[in-house]
């Protein structure tokens, strides 16, 4: 399908077919990422899927910005902020609702999730909030020096978090029952041969997702324009597409009462989305023409602040009920409503 539509205009009928193949490719990516995750165990498994999904997002944003001109100057900001809202409110909310409906109260390690949330809050503030108030350049844009600092800080914080998650304090990111016993859940641990084949097929699926999403994006933009929706909705659609694997994996983990894994996936994806996208955009700025809009508007700043506050109150106790899940989903619904009707 990718070879048939690459570089060609896609009609509405063909776009539907591309969308179906794109969905299948996403499901394939989820399957193979989960095989690799089961082989390496937690928290490495969550990290594998988070990085894989972020590679899709970064490649898609850069490709669209290079080919889209001035109309895509805010695409990186819109997509990254949408990813933060989807992960910290949408995925977290869905996982908490599913977990609490089945098990009434869900528990997780507040130390690890709190550290992840703090890192996400710092990354989002430095990369998306501060450019709104800087004065070196007019408007919500960053100067080359400020963008370079944001890129270096993003990579440094993300690298420090990965070190903490996988080496120095790995037990903080394991489900409480695993951290207490020193054991980890391995569901039919795959063989080395199967893991290697899944790594190869995961790469193939990711290439398919990136390519097909880019091919169908003009049809999505045309449909949104015909519906009279704002340009920033394109960023929301991209984030929804690339985070579909994370959402499915988080829902499966929550259904198995592994809410720690769901939260690792959600916050890890938010962190990777900022920590890897901003440096990539900074490097791509060499080829991009025109200003790069990164600063959030007043409405989104309020939503970001509300998200951090609500997530903090959810994380601190180390356990959650249906109410917390409902609050996160309500904030996510507000984000979608304001994206459609600002």
From TrEMBL:
GO terms for molecular function: potassium:proton antiporter activity; sodium:proton antiporter activity. It is found in: Membrane. Keywords: Membrane, Transmembrane, Transmembrane helix. It is a multi-pass membrane protein. Residues 13-166, 198-340 form the Sodium/calcium exchanger membrane region domain. The chain crosses the membrane at residues 12-32, 44-68, 80-101, 113-133, 145-163, 195-213, 233-251, 263-287, 293-315, 322-340. Its main location: membrane. GO terms for cellular component: plasma membrane. It comes from the Bacteria. InterPro entries: Alkaline_pH_Ca-Antiporter, NaCa_Exmemb. The keyword Transmembrane applies. This is Ionic transporter y4hA.
């Amino acid at each position: 399908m990718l070879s048939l539509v690459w570089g060609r205009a896609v009609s509405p009928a063909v776009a539907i077919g591309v969308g179906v193949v794109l969905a299948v490719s996403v499901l394939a990516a989820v399957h193979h990422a989960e095989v690799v995750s089961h082989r390496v165990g937690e928290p490495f498994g969550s990290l594998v899927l988070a990085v894989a999904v972020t590679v899709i997002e970064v490649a898609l944003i850069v490709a669209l910005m290079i080919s889209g001109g001035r109309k895509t100057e805010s695409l990186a900001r819109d997509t990254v902020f949408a990813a933060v809202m989807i992960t910290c409110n949408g995925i977290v909310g869905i996982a908490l609702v599913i977990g609490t409906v089945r098990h009434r109260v869900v528990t997780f390690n507040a130390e690890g999730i709190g550290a992840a949330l703090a890192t996400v809050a710092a990354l989002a503030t430095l990369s998306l909030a501060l450019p709104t108030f800087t004065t070196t350049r007019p408007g919500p844009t960053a100067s080359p020096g400020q963008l370079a600092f944001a890129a270096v800080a993003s990579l440094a914080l993300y690298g420090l978090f990965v070190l903490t998650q996988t080496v120095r304090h790995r037990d903080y990111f394991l489900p409480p029952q695993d951290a207490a016993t020193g054991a980890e859940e391995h569901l039919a641990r795959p063989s080395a041969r199967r893991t290697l084949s899944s790594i190869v097929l995961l790469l193939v699926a990711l290439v398919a997702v990136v390519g097909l999403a880019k091919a169908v994006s003009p049809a999505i933009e045309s449909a949104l324009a015909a519906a009279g929706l704002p340009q920033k909705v394109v960023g929301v659609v991209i984030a929804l597409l690339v985070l579909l694997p994370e959402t499915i994996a988080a829902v499966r983990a929550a259904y198995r009462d592994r809410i720690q894994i769901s939260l690792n996936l959600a916050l890890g994806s938010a962190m990777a989305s900022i920590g890897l996208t901003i440096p990539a955009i900074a490097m791509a700025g060499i080829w991009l023409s025109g200003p790069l809009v990164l600063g959030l508007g007043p409405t989104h700043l309020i939503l970001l602040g509300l998200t951090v506050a609500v997530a903090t109150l959810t994380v601190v106790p180390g356990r959650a009920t249906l109410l917390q899940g409902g609050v996160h989903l309500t904030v996510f619904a507000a984000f979608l409503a304001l994206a459609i009707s600002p």
